[in-house]
Amino acid sequence: MTISMFRSAAILGLLSAVGPFAVDMYLPALPAIERSLNANVSSAQLTLTVYFIAFGLAQLFYGPYSDQVGRKRPLYLGLCIFGLGSLGCAIAPSMEWLLLSRFVQGIGGAVVMVVPRAIIRDLHTGTQATRLMAMIMLVISVSPMLAPLAGSGLVLFSGWRAIFWVLCAAAAISLLITGFMLPETLKDEHKIPVNFRSLIRGSRVLFTDPLFMGLTFIGGFGIASFFVFVASASFVYTGQFGLSPVEFSLAFAVNAIGFFAASQLAASLGERFGMEQVVSKAVAGFATFTIILLGLALAGYGSLYVIIGMLFLANACLGLVIPSTMVMALDNHGEIAGLASSLGGTMQMLAGGIMIAVASPFFDGTAIPMIATIVLCSLAAFVLTRLVLGKIADPAKLNQS
């Protein structure tokens, strides 16, 4: 492992953590926001949904834009928009204002999903790219482990609005990191002018590539399951099980630790067994653990510790799936890495938003609707894995598709 890779992982990880911080630090505040703005649970959850939708749609812009002008200018633009959205959230007098500001925040935050992935593709491919992605996720892991605790402390001592003032500061720090520590990785000769024809041509290549689409949605349904957990967990853990905001933050961190710890093994296991085998086995494990958890919950054994333990195992499987599928999906599309990253990210974010919307009408404050929707995500990922990864093993099948 070179010093430059460690440096790249630290810089890209800090930038990439801005988006998750906007969600994870915010989770303990959802019940307080519900009370403060005279809203209901569905409205509070909607603030997550609009963020994810904006986060997904905006990626369609940042990817092609970064292919044309380089990787740094889109970061400047997106981080400024994110800061403005955070400011709007901090001063929001009503739920409608907060929803609009969260949408703006999501539009800006999308840049830290697209551009770092494109930078990784600029620098590396294959297992080296997976290793860098896993190291970045190790840096990002600070967010689900510490951000909810920080959010709980801010809510307790300063109120929920303080969370968004902190996010304004995070945007400013990220701008300084981009300006003074991040080099431009896209060489001038590799820049692609953005026009409608080139976008259509590149999109056609991606949409008609069954490997890209399949891998994108395998990872996408894994991400969607985590979104469902994020949208529901604070209400389930504090409502059904009576946890305080701090206790919820600790429980949330345990579930996240499984994901990020396992992600550090993805590259090594990929080198030893092949990345497609790692993804296939991990998706099977994810489906198995979530189905067992649903069975236990329906049978009356869905205690807090059972849920935390089984989700820890399921998320550990996702720690192998998500970084691997992100890298594998982009490997064959280096010349349009920005577009591929943005299109893949958009589809994954929309999948997450849709699954939250699917679960919301059935949410009754208990764990079973949350777990059932996570199982639905795991089964979708499992079916796609069986359809897609067999084609990797047999190139003739891929060529016939």
Q: Output the helix-strand order.
A: HHHHHHHHHHHHHHHHHHH
**Which residues sit in consecutive blocks of at least 5 with pLDDT less than 50?**
393-401
Shape type: globular
Note the main sheet: none
Task: Bin the helical content.
Answer: over 70%
Oligomerization status of the protein chains: single chain
Mean pLDDT: 84
| Radius of gyration over C-alpha positions, nearest whole angstrom | 20 Å
Number of strands: 0
Distance between the termini: 38 Å
Class of secondary structure makeup = mainly alpha
* SS element count, helices: 19
Q: Which range does the strand content fall in?
A: under 5%
Structural features:
401 residues; mainly alpha
Verbal overview:
The protein is 83% helix and 0% strand. The protein is globular and about 55 Å long. The protein is mainly alpha-helical and 401 residues long.
Task: Tell me briefly what this model is.
This protein has 401 residues and is mainly α. The chain has 19 helices and no strands.
Question: What's the layout of helices and strands?
Answer:
Layout: H1 3-16, H2 18-24, H3 30-36, H4 41-69, H5 72-90, H6 95-109, H7 111-123, H8 126-140, H9 142-157, H10 161-180, H11 196-207, H12 210-240, H13 245-263, H14 266-273, H15 275-298, H16 304-330, H17 337-359, H18 367-393, H19 395-400
